[in-house]
Fold these 2 entries.
Entry 1:
Amino acid sequence: MSDDQERVRLDKWLWAARFFKTRSLATEAVDGGKVDVNGTRAKPAKLVGPGDEIRVRVGPQLFVVKVKDTAERRGPATAARELYDETPESAADRARASEQHRLAATTFDFDDGRPSKKDRREIRRFKGR
């Protein structure tokens, strides 16, 4: 196989590797600057192949992966996971961020249930409404 036959479009690879649900979402992410290939901003038609490093921001998570293989078609999640290797630093950073997010999540606890009508009036008066 020649080198070009082992390479596929970036948006197609991101879709096949299941980082995005549709190719159009992958294209929007690449156009929006959420994806870097080998440290530089890329276009959706950029050809990627084995050995390339891709940084993908999906929501609050940042994935740093090395391309192991390419795929023209989207397959099952287990096959998609075989297309790349995530760097250990990336996995650790995502786990740390997830734990911080979990610990930061606070809920408002009403000890005696929801506020009464009198409590709501006092809250409104305190807020200046």
Note: The chain has five helices and seven strands.
Entry 2:
Amino acid sequence: MESEANVLGGELAGCSMDPTTGFMRDGYCYPLQRDPGRHEICAVMTDDFLQYSKAQGNDLVTPRPDLSFPGLEPGDHWCVCVPRWIEAHEAGAAPPVVLDATSEAVLEDVSLETLRAYAHDGDT
């Protein structure tokens, strides 16, 4: 991964290596042309979001060993698709965001003010 910036203008931090996240499964949430889902928001999973996502047809809870996917639990950090996070936000189920591990590309669709309102652990 070449150096990417986060929504705060600093260097993009890793989101999670346990479970290993990111479109490339390298722990980072950054834009790639071959990633139409835009896995660019590092979010902390909540039960509300996991249930919302499952209801939308994206089951993030059930392990899928065939895809090397362990299944997620509340508290796990995961690179979430920008459109799904926006949908969850509109439905009142958006998970907290780790700002230093969220790609600046997200700012094209979500304001920094909105992201700050969802900042994990008061991350500013």
Note: Helices lie at 47-55, 82-90, 112-117.
